[in-house]
Amino acid sequence: MTILLIEDEPVVARQLEKLVRQLEPQATIDGPLPSVEQVADYLQNNPRPDLIISDIQLSDGVSFDVFGRLEVSCPIIFTTAYDEYAIRAFKLNSLDYLLKPIDPDDMQSALAKFHRWQPDGDNFQQQFRAFLADMTGHSTHKSYKRRFTGHYLRQIVSVPQEQVAYFCRDEVIYLHTLTGQKLITDYVTLDELEELVDPAAFFRANRQYLVHLEAITGYQPHYSGKLLLTLRQPSSLEITISKDKAPAFRKWFEQG
């Protein structure tokens, strides 16, 4: 049995791979793959896997994009940090989903469901196309969060998107404004925030930073292939974009 893992966060990817290897020691594990582009290349040039375990939000888009372009006839277990997506559709199409952080018992149950799964090929394809159409509709009409709240000087402060510089994870999630304020938010993970914000306005630079387009003045290429972002004053912070995410960032920054 071959299982394809799709996950763009390195730490999460390593944990996911370790967990799946523990639960399915006889399986061949391919990936983890971090981007839509790499997933498309894999599916076009390799035998079909028996099972796909896939994050929804990847470094250069959402996994639905590639599943919509290519014929996928194997079951998929989706993972996500935020359950706004159409949960009903997952259930109707014999698919499963896991909320991050992934509980080992939940993964074990999902894999057990896979082993019980008996596909009707034609029916599966029809249902899966309907599922993707439903997902596309949700993505197209999705409304993104435009204001964020945080704790500042014993007050709850509301900050419009236009005044956000970046979010930073450092034990808790901080909101930094363009004027230099630092607020503690009630969000638990950056993955959760990434599902809420407009992807045209915010970019997940790395595991620690989710940065707003208006805060970026430019970037400097590094010899290693990474990019070093420079932000508007008063911030002197340099945020690093990994080599893998650099192409997606350049495209996003130019389009913005």
TrEMBL record:
InterPro entries: CheY-like_superfamily, LytTR_DNA-bd_dom, Sig_transdc_resp-reg_receiver, WalR-like. It comes from the Bacteria. PROSITE patterns: HTH_LYTTR, RESPONSE_REGULATORY. SUPFAM superfamilies: CheY-like. One of its GO terms (cellular component) is protein-DNA complex. The modification 4-aspartylphosphate is found at residue 55. The keyword Phosphoprotein applies. GO terms for biological process: regulation of DNA-templated transcription. One of its GO terms (molecular function) is phosphorelay response regulator activity. The keyword Phosphoprotein applies. Residues 2-115 form the Response regulatory domain. Residues 148-255 form the HTH LytTR-type domain. Keywords: DNA-binding, Phosphoprotein. This is Two component transcriptional regulator, LytTR family. It comes from Fibrisoma limi BUZ 3. The lineage of its organism: Bacteria, Pseudomonadati, Bacteroidota, Cytophagia, Cytophagales.
